[in-house]
Amino acid sequence: MTDYVKPPVDPDLVKFTEKNDYDALAKYLVGNNYRYRENIIIPRILGPIVIKTNEEKMIEATVESCPFKSITSCIIGYGLGAAVGLFTSSLMPNVTDPTAQQNQTAREILREMKSSMLSYAKNFAILGAVFSGVECCIESARGKSDWKNGTYAGGVTGGLIGLRGGLKAGLFGAAGFAAFSTIIDYYMHQRGS
């Protein structure tokens, strides 16, 4: 049996290892650590390419957060409730005492309108805040944005509102509000497509 003979060393390989070019070769093959904005490829759909700044990303994250959506829905619900309260109070004046004089003063009518507007505004604000907050939390937990989020949120919101009247009212409220939310969501998606 013959002894093992080491093959001759390539002189170019010796120069390559002495210069520590293995690191440069690895960086070249794997990729460098520096990513320049000019190397980013953003597919164009419509219009010019705009890269968002950090401030724009921060504002977008704030606007898309659950507390912001809930507070916005609360404010919009308050305004919508006030408008509905004003409309209903003008249609059905509240006569509390049938034996009282039928001619009401303007001050009494305005007081009734104010109380009706505040009542509706408060209820719509609570309804909007709870529904929007629950829907956003469900969407965040599921990681999907589809019709089921509105249905689940409608069930939770209707159940919470109906629980004031008891368990049976809570169950009917949950089922009714979930069905209503599903129908509205279906209608809105059909119009959008």
What does the model show?
GO terms for molecular function: mitochondrion targeting sequence binding; protein transmembrane transporter activity. Helices cover 69% and strands 0% of the residues. The protein contains 7 helices and no strands. It is elongated and about 125 Å long. It is an all-alpha fold.
Estimate percent helicity. 55-70%
Question: Low-confidence stretches at least 5 residues in length (pLDDT < 50)?
Answer: none
Distance between the termini: 81 Å
Shape from CA axes?
elongated
Radius of gyration: 33 Å
Topology, element by element:
Blueprint: H1 11-18, H2 21-30, H3 54-63, H4 66-91, H5 106-142, H6 147-162, H7 167-192
Helix pairs in contact: 4-5, 5-6, 6-7
Protein name: Mitochondrial import inner membrane translocase subunit TIM22
Subunit structure: Component of the TIM22 complex.
GO cellular component, one term: TIM22 mitochondrial import inner membrane insertion complex
Summarize the structure.
The protein has 193 residues and is mostly helical.
List the defining traits of the structure above.
about 190 residues; mainly alpha; about 0% strand; mitochondrion inner membrane; Mitochondrial import inner membrane translocase subunit TIM22; protein transmembrane transporter activity; mitochondrion targeting sequence binding; translocation
